[in-house]
Write a structure and sequence with these properties.
The protein is built from no helices and 19 strands. The protein has about 350 residues and is mainly beta. A 4-stranded antiparallel beta sheet has the order 1-2-3-4, with no helix packed on it. A hairpin with a 4-residue loop joins strand 5 (about 60-70) and strand 6 (about 75-85). It starts with a strand and ends in a 37-residue tail after the last strand.
Length: about 350
């Protein structure tokens, strides 16, 4: 995801080294979280690993970074998935930074109400209250919203229950024009076809949440269907072959905000084995990968979300090669997932 603070765009992502994901064990060194910065979204500077002792310490895999800026403390707050023993018994890692680049870890084993957390998405409301929207593997991969402490570095102890859909991940939570949006897609497991994306809306963070009709990244005409390219939802007609895993709010020159959906195009790196449908199975047979294949060289697809007059997000359009944004050049901390949005 990309965070805009004081004229700088900070991009937080996963660095895979020469590994293919969550394993093998040992060495269980990748992925780790890294940072890039830019002033125009075009030219990016690699700023290194978020924590100084990465990638070799601590032992484990760390992924799905999400960062918010806490105005009262002037701290960047990073939450990420922390698998210290490999998949799939995860907690959260939490770290803070004064400059958005060099982070200090506060904990690597923060847990919410529902155990074995997978993925996370932070959201800061108009009043400064912060929330984590996440998947619980122990609850059949259902999503939940967890309230954070005022400084956004710990769980406050208030949870708003589980969303109804099973076998989903990659959630995002945001607010636009007084409406709250919670979106996620089917579990994918680094799958080549990608996953659909469904969205709920609410007038309050506590609900009730009403689902928009139709999966937004699916060509199905069944309004109740959740599309996917893996597991018990494999073979569905996905519009964009990507799995949603992040959201960025970009300040524009006219004072509005662009909401960018980020989808990982797994197995899109060069030299990938075209017969392999996903990267969760052993690297043998149909999934034998050449030594020249590097998972970290895969692509991401970005959708500039469009909304109708009632605030509904429009269904995704077919693949396009580029999007154009007239970005702001003088934005400050008010252009954050917080008060002004």
């Amino acid at each position: 995801m990309i965070l805009a603070v004081n004229g700088v765009f900070y991009l937080y992502g996963e660095h895979y080294g020469n590994s293919t994901g969550d394993g093998p064990s040992p060495p269980l060194l990748f992925p780790k979280i890294v940072t890039y910065t830019s002033t125009d979204l075009m030219a990016w500077t690699f700023r290194g690993f978020a924590l100084q002792d990465w990638p070799t310490k601590p032992y484990g895999t760390f992924f799905t970074p999400w960062v918010v800026y806490d105005k009262p403390t002037r701290k960047f707050v990073l939450w990420f998935n922390a698998y210290l023993e490999g998949c799939c018994a995860g907690n959260w890692g939490v770290a803070t930074s004064d400059d958005g680049v060099n982070f200090v870890a506060l904990s690597l084993n923060v847990a919410g109400r529902y155990a074995s957390v997978d993925c996370n998405a932070l959201f800061v409301d108009d009043d400064g209250s912060a929330y984590n929207f996440y998947t619980s593997e122990a609850e059949d991969h259902k999503h939940s919203i967890e309230l954070l402490t005022p400084n956004k570095t710990a769980i406050a102890g208030t949870n708003y229950g589980l969303f109804p859909d099973r076998y989903v991940e990659g959630g995002v939570l945001f607010k636009r024009n007084g409406l709250y949006y919670a979106g996620y897609g089917s579990c994918c497991c680094f799958c080549r076809p990608g996953a659909g994306w469904i969205v709920y809306q609410s007038k309050t963070i506590t609900g009730p949440w009403m689902r928009q009709p139709y999966d937004l990244n699916c060509n199905s005409t069944d309004p109740a269907k959740i599309c996917g390219g893996y597991g018990d939802r494999s073979g569905d007609p996905i519009t964009i072959n990507a799995q949603g895993i992040g959201l960025s709010l970009i300040p524009l020159a006219d004072g509005s905000t662009a909401y960018l959906w980020h989808g990982e195009r797994w197995l899109s790196a060069k030299y990938n084995n075209p017969t392999c449908p996903d990267e969760c199975r052993p690297e043998t047979g149909v999934c034998s990968e050449p030594e020249t294949y590097a998972k970290g060289e895969g692509f991401m697809y970005i959708v500039n979300l469009e909304f109708d007059a009632d605030g509904n997000i429009l269904k995704f359009k077919p693949f396009v090669d580029s999007i154009t944004l007239d970005i702001a050049t003088d934005f400050g901390t008010e252009h954050l997932p917080g008060p002004s949005l």
